[in-house]
Amino acid sequence: MKKHNYSAGPCILPQEVFEKSAQAILNFNDSGLSLLEISHRSKDFVAVMDQARALVLELLGLEGKGYQALFLAGGASLEFVMIPYNLMKVDGKAAYLDTGTWAAGAIKEAKLFGETVVVGSSKDDNYNHIPTGYSIPTDADYFHCTSNNTIFGTQMKTFPTTEVPVVCDMSSDIFSRVLDFSQFDLIYAGAQKNMGPAGTTLVVVKESILGKSGRDIPSMLDYSKHIKAESMYNTPPVFPVYTSLLTLQWLKNLGGIAAIEKQNNAKANLLYSEIDRNPLFKGAAAVADRSAMNATFLLNDEAHAPIFDEMWKAAGISGLPGHRSVGGYRASMYNALPLESVQVLVDVMKALETKV
Amino acid sequence: MKKHNYSAGPCILPQEVFEKSAQAILNFNDSGLSLLEISHRSKDFVAVMDQARALVLELLGLEGKGYQALFLAGGASLEFVMIPYNLMKVDGKAAYLDTGTWAAGAIKEAKLFGETVVVGSSKDDNYNHIPTGYSIPTDADYFHCTSNNTIFGTQMKTFPTTEVPVVCDMSSDIFSRVLDFSQFDLIYAGAQKNMGPAGTTLVVVKESILGKSGRDIPSMLDYSKHIKAESMYNTPPVFPVYTSLLTLQWLKNLGGIAAIEKQNNAKANLLYSEIDRNPLFKGAAAVADRSAMNATFLLNDEAHAPIFDEMWKAAGISGLPGHRSVGGYRASMYNALPLESVQVLVDVMKALETKV
């Protein structure tokens, strides 16, 4: 039976990526060796890393603009630490926008390093919208935001204009929509949504913002050292990086971010239209801030949950239950999820009307 | 043609591990989903993590002795930072044994945190032996050593008795030989030698040594937080952890560490006997400290290098060139390398005698 995987991450990747990465484990580049047993310093893997780093900048439109792409380890959560280490001056301060669980996590770590100003927060509304009307101190070392809030289903549609460096956690919507990526000075993202499997973290950083914190940075937490080592300061997560390259190549062949954005908008419109039309459901996030990646929605009558749950499971859908912080349902519609899968869900939602 | 992979790491893994991990990418546990697209919080993956953590303690004989096994990210190099963060008190000090490039790397990071006493070093002899006759300050917060020096081909055969906690980087010989592992308070190892593919780091820590540094430890660098979260503080490196589990299961089915140690000794004896017998070659490391994992050796006459290189390549051997710090050759004979591959190398070394 065809599966429709709505997992919030790790999540669905293109079928061709699964097939090619499995093949590379058995015989990489027709070398007779597995991708897993070759040196990361071998010509073949150095080429993988170089291609992946270059393709990131190409897809984001950041080539030749002073940016470097790195494939690190430790997840976005380790970036919560690396960012203040590298960017917050001793006795300096940073500005953070609190839009959800992960933003709050980043704030918590920054506080260990110095003054951390929360310029806006929607915590009191269970993060159901993106705060507005905040201002960013001009003497902050950087401003940090989270472009998409996986758990709450909100997404920043625009980003503030400020003279301080802008740092953005794009873990759950990178490569999903066209943006002027040069408005950011540092972008980071755990791979396991739109870029690849769990196990590597993308960091795209404008080199000119580095080297100013005045801190003694441990080597593995120092972006400059990773740049100097061309993202091979130590043994990188070989398989996750290779599989990310395959996913980025799939995206490029599809037409890049502009092409996938059209598909993502079509999927989101289809689902949100049904949520708004169907009297049995309601959306969880403010309409203006709805995420095109993660749609959070609830049944108006919880008593319908058992029958709805049975129906979507019977349709081959998985990964639909909402996060405990919101309840209800969350449909994660990452790049590789086909429109067909959204249609299956919408059909189930419609069918529920005839059953209750 | 059959390949004989002597890569120093990432390195050869059992063929059944390649096959099973490739299969899991196409269809994990017959779920119809790829291992790469399932949630790390799913029942199936939580079981993988739990089994892997338990099997580590079982294989090391550390069950029920107050230890916890963690699968982290960032490689051994990130542990160089985590260890002082967690174990070196504010205004405390640590003792390090300097036995090679990686030990020196660990020392460099520790110095950022406080007094770092190098109790012994073989640096002046290009690390060709393990220092002896050193003493460990009784007021050190911990003693750090590196059990096997991949680059130089030396291996600690015994470990000092001390009342301070003993921390050991076993990246390149963990699971290769029987030791009383309870003599260590913290063991760590990048997976990419005897445990699995690149992308995860094993940490085995005695819980009673934690919580004493008095430092504000960033969450991702705090062993206690990882323990509390059962090694899922954030999204773990799913594929590397799963493939490590497969490798550990292979080892258990083979008879565990005692069984593989016999094979490893047979391989090492075969190769070192030939290095000592063959007048064209000489070993690089002190005989008493020779590593059973990485044999470093040189041609007595460099002029023979072109013909020897041509011969071993023709025999299907790869990964044999020595590290630039030593030159010559390095045969890495990790757990999954079959005795047959060592015989092929020895046969080539013998054949060289008839050609020059």
UniProtKB/TrEMBL annotation, chains A, B:
EC number: 2.6.1.52
Substrates-to-products reaction catalysed: 4-(phosphooxy)-L-threonine + 2-oxoglutarate = (R)-3-hydroxy-2-oxo-4-phosphooxybutanoate + L-glutamate; O-phospho-L-serine + 2-oxoglutarate = 3-phosphooxypyruvate + L-glutamate
Pfam families attached to this UniProt entry: Aminotran_5
Main enzyme class: transferase
Family named by the database record: Belongs to the class-V pyridoxal-phosphate-dependent aminotransferase family. SerC subfamily.
One MF term in the entry's GO annotations: O-phospho-L-serine:2-oxoglutarate aminotransferase activity
Cofactors named for this entry: pyridoxal 5'-phosphate
Source species of the chain: Flavobacterium erciyesense
Listed name of the protein: Phosphoserine aminotransferase
Gene name linked to the record: serC
Function: Catalyzes the reversible conversion of 3-phosphohydroxypyruvate to phosphoserine and of 3-hydroxy-2-oxo-4-phosphonooxybutanoate to phosphohydroxythreonine.
Residues modified to N6-(pyridoxal phosphate)lysine: K193
InterPro entries assigned: Aminotrans_V_dom, Aminotrans_V_PyrdxlP_BS, Pser_aminoTfrase, PyrdxlP-dep_Trfase, PyrdxlP-dep_Trfase_major, PyrdxlP-dep_Trfase_small
Organism lineage: Bacteria, Pseudomonadati, Bacteroidota, Flavobacteriia, Flavobacteriales
